[in-house]
Design goal:
The structure holds 2 protein chains of 2 kinds.
Chain A (H helix, E strand, L loop, with lengths): L6 H23 L8 H27 L2 H20 L10 H5 L16 H25 L6
Helix pairs in contact in A: 1-2, 2-5, 3-5
Chain B lengths: L1 H20 L14 H4 L1 H13 L5 H9 L1 H22 L8
Helix pairs in contact in B: 4-5
């Protein structure tokens, strides 16, 4: 028995998953300028992953989903967040030293390369939320306790 | 009959909530005018100093990642712990294989 949702849903998912991913990446990368941020954009990209899991079924997800890669990416996201917070440890934990006197990310407010560690933290949190939510959905789908 | 009573009571609750939430004669959540700046001065501080001190034009991101960074750190830890717990609890256990 195939566990995908049929050719119509699969075609629509193939068309919309890249658009959802692009929109989520936009929300993450412009998190310090426009409404949204790491959590929201990461959850949007995770929605694309969950749509893939629903439309293409568990067997296709098992082939594309690498457990070790996703755990490593989630750990890297958390560590980058902590590292960006540690950058200003000379003054205080969570001191935005890149914005006040840093070499990069100190442009005019409102431009993409501004706001110190906020873009780095947004990317890290977005990566962490995306991999975490996709891992949670994959775990729920893989380790189901009911009989089919 | 039961359905009619339920609908009417729902309508009554909605009307009561609309009456309570009216700012003219209902409940007041804090003072009006500019008096709120004396009581909730942190809001005013974030709005006026956020762009200069943190640099992001999105004040919510400024608050979440800079002024309240510890809260975000705890939130990320909660997410990590929740997913670790879900994976640990949902995986096949030894007695399930029988």
């Amino acid at each position: 028995m195939s566990d995908d949702m049929g050719v119509i849903v699969r075609t629509m998912a193939r068309a919309t998953i890249p658009l959802i991913g692009i929109f989520g990446a936009y929300v993450v990368s412009h998190g310090h300028l426009t409404p949204g941020g790491g959590f929201q954009g990461g959850a949007t990209i995770a929605g694309a992953g969950i749509l893939f899991l629903l439309a293409f079924g568990l067997s296709e997800m098992k082939r594309r989903y690498d457990k070790h890669l996703y755990s490593a990416l989630e750990g890297i996201g958390g560590l980058v967040f902590l590292g960006a917070a540690m950058l200003g440890i000379g003054t205080a934990f969570f001191y935005n030293t890149l914005w006040h006197d840093g070499p990069v990310f100190n442009g005019e407010p409102g431009t993409l390369l501004s706001a110190g560690y906020l873009p780095i933290m947004n990317l890290a949190v977005g990566l962490k939320v995306f991999t975490g939510l996709v891992s949670a959905m994959a775990a729920i789908a893989l380790y189901r306790r009911w009989k089919s | 009959m039961k359905r009619t009573i339920a609908f009417l009571s729902l309508l009554f609750v909605l009307g009561a909530l609309l009456y309570i939430a009216n700012p003219d004669y209902g409940l007041k959540f804090g003072p009006g005018g500019d008096d709120w700046k004396n009581l909730r001065y942190t809001d005013d501080y974030y709005i006026t100093h956020g762009v200069k001190e943190v640099g992001g034009t999105n004040i919510v991101t400024d608050i979440v990642f800079d002024y309240r960074g510890y809260d975000t750190l705890g939130e990320a830890t909660v997410l990590f712990t929740a997913i670790a717990g879900a994976t640990a609890l949902l995986r096949p256990w030894r007695r399930d294989e029988e």
